[in-house]
Amino acid sequence: MVTKDMNILEAVQKHPQIVQVFQKYGLGCVGCMVASGESLGDGIASHGLDADALVEEMNKLIEETK
């Protein structure tokens, strides 16, 4: 499971499948230099997207790919 408070890079390293969600919404957060110091919630919100919805989608994907 991931949360909005998790660091972007740590979340991706632990659950690489969530990169699909970033790509789906055109978020380049994974390759961004800021990602190493930014939370999922802050990174997603900075692009004007609903962080709660995307984190929920990421967690659903994690469960489906176990």
Automatic annotation (TrEMBL):
Pfam families: DUF1858. This is DUF1858 domain-containing protein. It comes from Ilyobacter polytropus (strain ATCC 51220 / DSM 2926 / LMG 16218 / CuHBu1). Residues 3-55 form the DUF1858 domain. It comes from the Bacteria. InterPro entries: CHP03980_redox-disulphide, DUF1858, ScdA-like_N_sf.
